Amino acid sequence: MPENDRTRTTRGRQLDPTRDAAILDATLDVLAEVGYTGMKIEMVAERAKAGKGTLYRRWPSKEELVIEAVTRMGQRDVGAEQLPDTGTLRGDIIALIRPELMEEQSQKVRVIAGLTSMLASHEGLAESANNANIGAWITANRVLIQRAVDRGEAKADADVDFLARLIPSMSAHRIALEGKALDKDFLVKLVDEVLLPALR
Amino acid sequence: MPENDRTRTTRGRQLDPTRDAAILDATLDVLAEVGYTGMKIEMVAERAKAGKGTLYRRWPSKEELVIEAVTRMGQRDVGAEQLPDTGTLRGDIIALIRPELMEEQSQKVRVIAGLTSMLASHEGLAESANNANIGAWITANRVLIQRAVDRGEAKADADVDFLARLIPSMSAHRIALEGKALDKDFLVKLVDEVLLPALR
DNA sequence: CGTATCCGGTAATGGCCAGTACCGGTAACG
DNA sequence: CGTTACCGGTACTGGCCATTACCGGATACG
User: Fold this and answer.
1) PROSITE patterns given for it (chains A, B) (predicted)?
2) Cα angle for residues B154, B169, A166 (degrees, 5° grid)
């Protein structure tokens, strides 16, 4: 039920669809900054320049709002179809590192980190959060590495699933626990010093 | 100020020092299970078979209690002096994987994960939590890897600081986000397939 | 011994904040 | 046009705990 029941038959003014995006974006911003517990509905409303009523007219609770925001965040992912294909794994992985994507990934990781405490209790959220976000990054890596294996660039007995987690895991740790930014140097070093050696 | 001011000059019964450990242990257990927000003072009291007053007689707030518990958790670390020394890096790292340590590390990671949302807001906690816990594990790895470099077992230009984070980061991701246990197979694979190739 | 203080319980107190109700104003249905 | 429902604001309500206050026993200091 990501989209609430918007099929109206009644009279009068309709919900303004442009407010939705503003509210969901504000939700992610606040989540990334202060986590689920620190996030107050009023902060989201204020940042979205909306009244609390406007939020509650769309989502029945804070929890539902957060679930939709996180789910939507997971949907704007890299898109497994349009992955780079430069002919080498190193080139592919580095092509994945565009500055906008890095910033976006950083926000995603921060959102998830601020959510970990409720993952255990809330079932659907854990799914959306983990699978849809870091998960997409891992999936992209999996595809790229598998290609390298098929191409003979990487050794045939490599554990693709396992190695696909390498870069996202290390990055998540750097962002969430060390509080550092995700810079290109770090990622390039990860590819050259760790991932590629592991595939030879 | 880890230890409260216990220098009493007044008359009457003293604080029973054996209650402290029970309460701090209970705090860590609850934190690992439900995170900071989900943790209610009453849960801790109940698990420690204590009254709430007994807690508040020792710590002025939930926050202070958690800080001391987490700080103390950081102090029972591997102990950089008694690190294994088997002659090979592989042997050393695997010797570090004792079942009790794995269970303890898993609890630590779960505690930290349930705390991430408050790390941003509370300064000292982030320090205690990150540096003192995963940090100790990273430090142990750093020492072992440096030894391997000195010994000529690993290549001389290896970035020891960087590689020391490999196993702890990957393990933390596995425990905190994937919710899986930290088993020996996973760690051995990490050493053989990732760390050692990166050092050749 | 006498009493100050602790102990494990349990019953207030009080603040924070999700959720609700309304307000004056406005846009979009019939 | 006349409703009806929305919009951004701003109270108000109610529940959940952190924190405090007590209770009827222990206990250890002087």
Assistant:
1) HTH_TETR_2
2) 75
